[in-house]
Amino acid sequence: MTDLSITTSQRVSSFRFWPKFWPTVCTMSMIIGGMGLQAHAHEKAHEHMAESGKTLSAVIAGSHRSDASKARDQYRNPKATLEFFGLKPDMTLVEIWPGGKGWYQEILAPYMQANGTYYSAGFDLSATEGYQFKSNSAIAARLASDADLYGKVIVTELVPPAKVEIAPAGSVDMVVSFRNFHNWQMRGVEKDVLKAVFTALKPGGIFGITDHRSDKSTGKDGYISPADLKAAAAEAGFILVATSEINANPKDTHVHEKGVWTLLPTLAGNDADKDKMRAIGESDRLTMKFMKPAQ
């Protein structure tokens, strides 16, 4: 290494030459400083890429999720559920009706941010009041809150039967829906939704779904019959690949004062029964994986 040390007399004798070379020295300092800033920026960018490319477990444990959301992991089992569906971070994914609270959106969007594509297929974007408007507003606020987590999210809408293009036809690796089929069924639009999902998926693409399960369902209690879902999916052209008991809850009797909403998290029933409902937890749920035929 070159010895850069000089004596005091050398410093004094050489000082008279500094004015001549000072502009060059300043320019060199700026260049070196700029190189340092670029190196720092590159290092920070690398750190950001590593941060945004977190594992599913790391995203689920992330500080951006509230304690209240994390408390529900025991009922919703997000890691096991998404792994059962076969989700990979470089896929093109659509989540149908994420809802204002965006419980799964807070996991899926950050997980897909670095290498994948995430579509948020929400409610009617032209709504100006009511639940759908509030839900859309909450989603918009979330997506605007942190570009590192949500900056690449693509917002579309699903308003069956009028608006059903949740993503370009044949462009999607996976579509997921969490506790929505009962709403479609109650409105009589489940066939329209399943057709929209089928159209958006690539051949061989996956439709993963969970919902409140009960063979005793009245059709108005928030539960669905597994047989109804299977029949509607088959009619739409899907193949049932697998079922899972990941989200089963044997404590759920399926018959409640105000349907599934009697249970957590809503607790809509009689106050005297709420401790009993808390002991049950959230609903018994089916978890199914369907596939659009490869050919």
Taken from the alpha-carbon principal axes, the silhouette is globular
DSSP helix count?
Answer: 13
Structural class: alpha/beta
Sequence of secondary-structure elements: HHHHHHEHEHHEEHHEHEHE
Q: How is the CATH topology of the largest domain named?
A: Rossmann fold
Helix content: 40-55%
Low-confidence stretches: 1-51
List keywords for this structure.
single chain, alpha/beta, Rossmann fold, seven-stranded mixed beta sheet, globular, disordered N terminus
Topology (SSEs and partners):
Blueprint: H1 8-15, H2 18-52, H3 56-60, H4 67-71, H5 73-76, H6 78-85, E1 92-96, H7 105-112, E2 117-122, H8 130-145, H9 147-150, E3 154-157, E4 172-178, H10 181-187, H11 190-200, E5 201-212, H12 226-236, E6 239-244, H13 274-280, E7 285-291
Parallel strand pairs: 1-2, 1-4, 2-3, 4-5
Antiparallel strand pairs: 5-7, 6-7
Helix pairs in contact: 11-12
Compose a concise summary of this entry.
This protein is an alpha/beta fold and 295 residues long. The chain has 13 helices and 7 strands.
Question: What would you note in describing this structure?
Answer:
There is one protein chain. With 295 residues, the protein is an alpha/beta fold. The protein folds into 2 domains: 41 residues; 236 residues, Vaccinia Virus protein VP39 (Rossmann fold). Helix 11 packs across helix 12. It is 44% helix and 16% strand.
